[in-house]
Write a structure and sequence with these properties.
about 240 residues, alpha/beta, Rossmann fold, 10 helices
Length: about 240
């Protein structure tokens, strides 16, 4: 469904992404793991059309999306849940959700998606009229995921969904992601929290200083001594 081929992203003379290639099949959940500054978010922003690529090719659902605008990419069904959530804090929970449906002109479909999201996140239903800025960090993350689901995405890109969350809220958010996986939604999750990401994903890539250094089934990588030493705190 998503194929990245020889992708290069530069900021001035600095290469943040150095010719990486990866692919994700329909229905898969795939993780990209790496430390801060590895280039994960730069890669994701290039896929989402938020920054320009220096070279390489990005294909989604048989469409070449290299260099096209973010709004067009969303309309094709590739939707990002951004790092830091970036909700509209002064708007209500319900208004935030409806902002996620801006590419959809079918009112009936919007209401179906809204009902689905509120069923998935009961706390958002309870607080539908509440200002989004008054939600906890975990609730805001749920709102950001719900907002993305309002556009009926074919694939979700999640940038550091556990950032700033308590262990309890992290587990709750990853529980939601497991639910989306069980529904057959294709998910690409970028994370520093390697253990939870590997527990969630079917496959994973390890990224270091702009390059992919390891890839494979999550069940294999979680036992790999190099991964355990670098990302899992030794033996688990």
């Amino acid at each position: 469904m998503l194929e990245i081929k020889d992708l290069v992203v530069r900021y001035g003379g600095i290469s943040a992404v150095k010719g990486i290639s990866l692919e994700i099949a329909e229905g898969e959940t795939v993780a990209l793991i790496g430390a801060n500054g590895a280039g994960k978010s730069s890669m994701l922003h290039a896929v989402s059309g938020l920054i320009k690529t220096a070279s390489g090719k990005i294909t989604f659902d048989r469409h070449d999306i290299t260099g096209i605008g973010a709004d067009r990419i969303v309309s094709l069904g590739l939707v990002q849940v951004p790092e830091g959530r970036q909700i509209f804090t002064r708007l209500s929970v319900d208004e935030n959700l409806r902002m996620g449906a801006y590419v959809n002109r079918d009112k009936a479909d919007i209401e179906r998606n809204r009902a689905r999201v509120l069923d998935l996140f009961p706390i958002l239903k309870e607080r539908a009229k509440q200002s989004a800025g008054t939600l906890s960090g975990g609730e805001q993350q749920m709102l950001a995921i719900g907002r993305a689901l309002m556009s009926s995405p074919k694939m979700l890109l999640l940038d550091e969904p556990s950032m700033g969350l308590s262990p309890i809220m992290t587990e709750e958010v990853f529980g939601v992601l497991r639910g989306l996986k069980d529904q057959g939604i294709t998910v690409f999750v970028i994370e520093q929290n390697a253990y939870d990401a590997l527990e969630l994903a079917d496959r994973a890539y390890i990224m270091e200083t702009g390059t992919i250094t390891l890839e494979g089934k999550s069940s294999d990588l979680i036992r790999d001594e190099r991964v355990k030493a670098a990302y899992l705190g030794g033996d688990i």
